[in-house]
Amino acid sequence: MCDNSSLKSNKALVRRLFEQDINQNYCAALAEILAVEVLIHDPLMGTMSGQEAFHRLNDLYEAVFTQPMVTIDLMLAEGDYVAVLHTHHAGHPCQVPMRRSPVADAGTAKCSVRS
């Protein structure tokens, strides 16, 4: 069981991943934060592993949407796990007039934090 300071630290680390990688496009954050053997489950791309897979997932979203941003709606921490409810916000470059409005997509992430 983690103490309260460890839970806060775990949540801060996961928040940093969302803020720096997605919102600030600081891709080096991935190498600093993610384990080399990171496992990713994505509804579009299936199950992938490795930091390079996370880069490919980011590249996919950046190719489809403009100005991707994420807001963290809720973070819960228990032991070594952090659950994140988040909303992705982005522009859509499609030329169909009704699709020019921004896109918002709710998501969840479960992160395991290890020392």
Number of strands: 5
Strand order of the largest sheet: 3-4-5
Q: What can be said about the biggest beta sheet?
A: 3 strands, antiparallel
Which overall shape is indicated by the principal axes computed on the Cα atoms? globular
| Chain-averaged pLDDT | 82
Any idea what the radius of gyration is? 15 Å
Helical residue percent?
Answer: 25-40%
Which ranges are low-confidence, i.e. pLDDT below 50, for 5 or more consecutive residues?
none
CATH class: Alpha Beta
Q: Structural class from helices and strands?
A: alpha+beta
How many separate domains make up the residues? Answer: 1
How much of the sequence is in beta strands? Answer: 35-45%
CATH topology: Nuclear Transport Factor 2, Chain: A
Tell me what the structure shows.
With 115 residues, this protein is an alpha+beta fold. The chain has a single domain (4-112), classed as Nuclear Transport Factor 2, Chain: A (Roll), CATH 3.10.450.50. It has helices spanning 4-23, 28-33, 51-64, and strands at residues 39-42, 46-49, 66-78, 81-91, 103-112. The chain has a 3-stranded antiparallel sheet. Strands 1-2 form a two-stranded antiparallel sheet. A hairpin with a 2-residue loop joins strand 3 and strand 4 (81-91). The radius of gyration is 15 Å and the shape is globular. The mean pLDDT is 82.
